[in-house]
TrEMBL record:
Highest taxon of source: Archaea
Organism, scientific name: Methanosarcina spelaei
Keywords, alphabetical: NAD, Oxidoreductase
GO BP, one annotated term: polysaccharide biosynthetic process
UDP-glucose/GDP-mannose dehydrogenase C-terminal domain sequence ranges: 390-513
Gene Ontology MF: a single term: NAD binding
Broad EC category: oxidoreductase
InterPro entries: 6-PGluconate_DH-like_C_sf (IPR008927), NAD(P)-bd_dom_sf (IPR036291), UDP-Glc/GDP-Man (IPR017476), UDP-Glc/GDP-Man_DH_C (IPR014027), UDP-Glc/GDP-Man_DH_C_sf (IPR036220), UDP-Glc/GDP-Man_DH_dimer (IPR014026), UDP-Glc/GDP-Man_DH_N (IPR001732), UDP_ManNAc/GlcNAc_DH (IPR028359)
Membrane-spanning ranges: none
Annotated catalysed reactions: UDP-N-acetyl-alpha-D-mannosamine + 2 NAD(+) + H2O = UDP-N-acetyl-alpha-D-mannosaminouronate + 2 NADH + 3 H(+)
Pfam families to which the protein is assigned, alphabetical: UDPG_MGDP_dh, UDPG_MGDP_dh_C, UDPG_MGDP_dh_N
Family designation: Belongs to the UDP-glucose/GDP-mannose dehydrogenase family.
Name by which UniProt lists this protein: UDP-N-acetyl-D-mannosamine dehydrogenase
């Protein structure tokens, strides 16, 4: 018997073929009851990072009379990798971890109390739907680190889902693609697949297909980033546009955050790609000035803070060791790929210059952190090979537990390739699946492991929960993520806990000048991204020591 194993290690046997009919009957009985109560039936395809919370938000919807108006079926493919989400959801447990307590609360309420949310593995539930929301992952697979142009959009799961949807839904069912996709996907890939499926069934009407991307943000406002935030949408036809506008107006807070309705789905799709490409670009922009500052005695953190006093430049952001999260590192690649492979143009390399460069810079910036660590250890008379190095922060941004495309991953992998012995601490992360399951996560053959040597041992890397244990006897400390727990480290305490002077590498401007000075006084070496003034502080400390000893 095959099993699907949850992140906590609980095993769930995959359903056998003879169980599907009984499962569909179970779901249909619930739907029949919901219809008697006047509820609209919504199927959410994919109950992962976005789908699970979106399903709960829809299930929590009330009409003008205060009555629950939707019954939601979360549908997940019964694979060994993902099936565990179904039984967890049906217990009222969230399949995604979040710092936002409302995630657990809303899922528990909708499953166990209001009973407006149920999960299943059978695609036959699509036959019962009035609306289908598609949250199937559409990834961009990079074939080389630092060369996004050679990548490919992985649309197989989305295309397979569209075929299944077309084979099952009723003709007047609205299909809403919520996934971030390559521009043109809704109109030129998904719609033809639905039409073909309809034709095989003898249905002559045009499928009601729409697109509306999410802007979900991990962290303490996870639910609000889905429910209480601006949305963009578009329909393939006038009827689809009217239906998607009505549906979104019912399930999200469009009163305070009005909908923006585009003329075509390709405009909605492009809006998401441009939005994230812009963010990626302004982050990558500071990489060259970071290197400039390091080499010319400039503290870029102070420069940025001075610039941000001007309101027009208040969004300037120091990039740290690259950027992460699911969207910014890859979405621009979807636009570049679409231009050639969906829309049919051959001059992509002439048209797209800034967006691919920005992604490549962000993907490789963390390699410089490894160089700084090597140099700091060398200045102390140590070698990087065999050195015990602690990375503080595995997540991609501060105060969240999301490790997807984290810059810290590249730091760890590069230092491992160079022979360092790695440790990791993060107060928000229990399991670093990119390491622990690197042969199968995010999919077989897609781990960033493939870009580096000597990576097999990282499958044994565990997140240290106790900082005092993690720091004991280290030779280098990398402050990789500005979690609030790391912002007030006292140099004396850190050196004492480490057991002596260490190399300290600051990736985010977390150290004050006084902290840097004190580390030097304690015999440590300090390096930092974008902070060239550190060498001047070091010289001042050395000069003072000479004067004291003379």
């Amino acid at each position: 018997m095959n099993f699907s194993v949850s992140p906590e290690g609980e095993e769930f046997p995959l359903p056998e073929s003879d169980e599907y009919a009984e499962e569909f009957k179970r779901v249909k009985d619930l739907v029949d009851k919901a219809r008697e109560e006047g509820k609209e039936i919504v199927v959410v395809m994919g109950v992962g990072f976005v789908g699970a919370v979106m399903a709960a938000i829809i299930a929590d919807t009330k009409d003008e009379n205060g009555n629950y108006s939707k019954f939601v079926i979360g549908c997940q493919r019964p694979s060994t990798r993902s099936y565990w989400k179904i039984p967890l959801l049906n217990r009222g447990q969230s399949p995604v971890k979040s710092e936002d307590k409302e995630v657990d609360e809303i899922i528990k309420r909708c499953v166990l109390e209001t009973k407006t949310l149920v999960a299943t593995y059978t695609n036959e539930c699509l036959k019962l739907a009035d609306v289908v929301v598609v949250d199937i992952q559409c990834d961009y697979v990079k074939c080389e680190l630092g060369n996004v142009r050679t990548g490919e959009a992985d649309m197989a799961a989305l295309e397979a889902s569209m075929k299944i949807i077309g084979e099952n839904i009723c003709p007047d069912c609205l299909v809403l693609i919520e996934t971030t996709v390559a521009p043109g996907t809704t109109e030129f890939v998904a719609l033809p697949l639905l039409k073909k499926a309809f034709q095989k069934r003898g249905i002559n009407s045009t499928p009601l297909l729409a697109h509306s991307f999410e802007r979900v943000m991990p962290g303490r406002d996870y639910v609000a980033s889905v429910r209480d935030f601006w949305r963009v949408c578009a329909g393939c036809t006038d009827e689809a546009r009217v239906k998607v506008e009505k549906f979104l107006s019912e399930v999200i807070n469009t009163k305070d955050y009005p909908l923006t309705i585009m003329d075509r789905p390709i405009e909605s799709e492009t809006a998401k790609i441009v939005e994230n490409s812009y963010r990626a670009t302004i982050l990558a922009f500071l990489n060259e000035w970071s290197l400039f500052s390091e080499r010319n005695g400039v503290d870029l953190i102070k420069v940025i803070n001075a610039i941000k006093m001007r309101p027009t430049h208040s969004n300037i952001i120091f990039p740290g060791p690259g950027i992460g999260g699911y969207c910014l590192p890859k979405d621009g690649g979807l636009g570049y790929w679409s231009y050639k492979h969906i829309l049919g143009f051959e001059d992509g390399d002439e048209v797209f210059k800034i967006t691919p460069t920005a992604i490549d810079v962000n993907d490789t910036r963390a390699l410089h952190v490894a160089e700084l660590t090597r140099d700091a250890l060398r200045n102390m008379g140590h070698y990087i090979a065999g050195a015990d190095v602690l990375v503080c922060g595995a997540s991609y941004r501060q105060d969240v537990g999301d490790t997807r495309y984290s810059g810290s991953e590249i730091v760890v992998r590069k230092l491992t390739e160079m022979g360092a012995e790695m440790r990791v601490h993060d107060p928000y992360v229990d399991h670093w699946y990119e390491m622990e399951n690197q042969d199968t996560y995010p999919a077989s053959g897609q781990s960033w492991k493939r870009f580096f040597r000597n990576q097999d041992g990282l499958a044994e890397l565990k997140i240290e929960s106790d900082f005092s244990t993690a720091i004991n006897d280290i030779e280098a400390l990398i402050l990789a993520v500005p979690h609030k727990e790391y912002l007030n480290f006292e140099p004396e305490t850190i050196v004492k806990m480490a057991g002596g002077p260490i190399a300290v590498i600051d990736c985010f401007g977390m150290l004050s000048d006084e902290d840097i000075r004190r580390y030097f006084e304690l015999g440590c070496e300090v390096k930092a991204l974008g902070r060239g003034h550190i060498q001047q502080i070091k010289k001042e400390v050395q000069k003072r020591k000479l004067q004291q000893n003379s």
